[in-house]
């Protein structure tokens, strides 16, 4: 799948992108023009120009309000355009070659909506930061034309702070990326808990899963707080230079005998210069975070497409399953056997026996019948050779072998009248003699059984074999 790049999105809305930049450039930098008009007034011999000066200030002030209003509207439209570009890609990619239900499309959009909002919001903030940064550069050029020495000293500290924050760029990226990955992991963990809710209840793992989920949320919250403090320290460092630079300007004004207009301009512009490090460091953070958000979006899109491709394979597997016999899905580790069985179970509500099953801390009857009555109990116990466990008051996972646990797990699903039973196991953990009797029972029952294995075996010669590639 081709990854989505920032330039691809901006190219599709060039008009709004450049219009956004132009409007915010003038809106943010009108104060620079107002400060220069103030310098002209102080240095002018025509003091009666005060009314003209005030009139120009009022006009510029009103113009700035109008530009901010227009800029806000353009910015909202631009964000909608960028967001729509992402959503169009989502729909086109998820529909490509796969017929998806509307619920799945909504689910996919819900998962990645956080990334889309973060991306378009960060682009907008980046434009705003760029316009402010450009205005600061313009102010510095004007200052250089008046007094190069004071200008260089005033800008020196912001430049030093910039290099410090730039050196921390990777740390900022890693912290942001860690938080983003933790959030994705929390979402995936929650989905897995919902999908395996029945199994969790059977194994009495509710409290354990709840504590695990709460720990994940707590850790992510702490990481966010630390990240917030980290960014705050950078802001505090930037604030340090404000008072220091004003002192430098006053000392320089006395030494170089600056005019009142030049002094007022330098003081006005110094506040913009002081923000240089803030805007440069912000731009650095924006660039890093934007990379994180786009990487996260592309990863989720890639995972979604892979999942869709696996759904195509899942549909092909369904077509190959033969009813009223034993089907064996054969494939290497990691080829997707478990995921295919989970998909079949979820889609058709067929019972599924997973690997590494567990037993309840109850007697054998409760472990197999799960609180319900069954006339098949004794027959199933004989079939699976579990008579030696009948008289135990409680079964313990530690005291049972892997084969015994697997037999109990399979016995649970056999007591119900199910036409199709899925077993993510080759039953090799079970004693060979018992295993053969179980497979014979499967064949005679005329139900449809699906088991899994890593390799083909001679005993599968009369079964329906389905091979899958890694």
Secondary structure blueprint with pairings:
Layout: H1 6-11, H2 14-43, H3 50-95, H4 102-146, H5 148-167, H6 169-195, H7 197-202, H8 206-256, H9 260-274, H10 276-320, E1 326-330, H11 337-348, E2 352-353, H12 364-369, H13 377-383, H14 402-414, E3 420-423, H15 432-445, E4 448-453, E5 464-467
Parallel strand pairs: 1-4, 1-5, 2-3, 3-4
Helix pairs in contact: 2-3, 2-4, 2-9, 3-4, 4-5, 4-9, 4-10, 5-8, 5-9, 5-10, 6-8, 6-10, 8-9
Tell me what the structure shows.
The longest helix has 51 residues, at 206-256. The chain has 15 helices and 5 strands. With 470 residues, the protein is mainly alpha-helical. Helix 6 runs parallel beside helix 10 (276-320). The protein has helices at residues 6-11, 14-43, 50-95, 102-146, 148-167, 169-195, 197-202, 206-256, 260-274, 276-320, 337-348, 364-369, 377-383, 402-414, 432-445; strands spanning 326-330, 352-353, 420-423, 448-453, 464-467. A 5-stranded parallel beta sheet has the order 2-3-4-1-5, sandwiched between helices. 73% of the residues lie in helices and 4% in strands.
